Amino acid sequence: MKPRHLLLALTIVAHPVAAQTAGELHLRRLLSVPLGALPPQAMLMPASRNHNYWVARLQAGSQWNNIVGDLATTALGVDLQWRGGSSLGLTAGYQWADCQQTTSDCPAHAMIGGRARFNLVTGGPTVASFIDNSATTTVGAEFGMGYAANAIGGRNACAFDLGAPVSVSLFQRIRLLTFLTPGFAWDARCIVSGSAPGGASTFLAAGFGLQQLGSRSLDVSFGVQRIFRRGAGVQLGVNVTYVRLP
Q1: Any idea what DSSP says for residue 144?
Q2: Residue-range domains of the chain with CATH
Q3: How far apart are CA 170 and CA 167, in angstroms?
Q4: pLDDT, tens digit (0-9, with 9 covering 90-100), for 69-92
Q5: CA–CA dist 74, 35 (Å, integer)
Q6: Where do the H-state alpha helices sit in the chain?
Q7: Contact 92, 110 (CB under 8 A)
Q8: Which of 4, 81, 151, 199 is the most buried (most CB within 10 A)?
Q9: pLDDT tens digits for range 137-188
């Protein structure tokens, strides 16, 4: 092999490790778990306090213009809404990466996550009163965690996030949903095959959707999210949920 070709090969192999700062690794961990890979969701619609509700969930998300390349993720999830209010959910998904360069640390990988959402205030139309007097506003808090095996150069990715979701539902028969969630996200050292954490980032999520679409059980929403860190790109996607009514 000629010296020039040998140097080029070594450069390609070394690039994934040498070019990444702690901040870049921090961002890549966030993009590898459900928080950064899947579209944001609104709080579940408030329901009867006399029942618990099981919710099945299908999600598909895509990330563009980030430090890795184009990322695509699909996932299935299940949520338990306790007494028509707060909920606890689990998610399992798989991410594919169309890397911008030939790198050795950009594998497709599975991910799992959990999310607890606490319904703090559910009230009348408030800011939406000028559109619909029957509107419902929900203010909550949420805590999420995510894990992805072999996400970056043979290392696992772990992350946590804390958010403050606000949802507004309008109209009666088919409800129009809008939501906004500001929050913070941290990466963490995984217990197995982890590396040192890289810090914290803020994020902002928003979206809209239709509830009770065709039946009282079916909801569809679209979400967009931005992690405020250089190279984060924009996250877009769709959520489809089905509520098992008592």
Answers
A1: E
A2: 3-244 (2.40.128)
A3: 10
A4: 788 999 999 999 999 999 999 999
A5: 13
A6: 3-18, 22-32, 34-37
A7: yes
A8: 151
A9: 899 999 999 999 998 888 999 999 999 999 998 887 888 999 999 999 999 9
Contact 201, 187 (CB under 8 A): no
Q: How far is CA 166 from the centre of its chain?
A: 16
Residue 236 token pair: 């877009």
Using a pLDDT cut of 70, give the percent of the chain over it: 85
Contacts 24+ apart (CB under 8 A), 188-194: 188/158, 188/159, 188/160, 189/158, 190/147, 190/155, 190/156, 190/157, 190/158, 192/156, 193/149, 193/150, 193/154, 193/155, 193/156, 194/155, 194/156, 194/158
Report the C-alpha gap between 156 and 160 in whole angstroms: 14
- What single string gives the DSSP state of each residue in 156-187? EEEEEEEE--EEEEE-SSSEEEEEEEEEEEEE
Structure confidence by residue, pLDDT tens digits, 105-128: 667 899 999 999 999 988 766 665
The residue to which tokens 């954490």 are assigned? 197
Instruction: List Cβ neighbours of 35 (8 Å cut-off, separation of 6 or more).
Output: 113, 144, 146, 159, 161, 185, 203
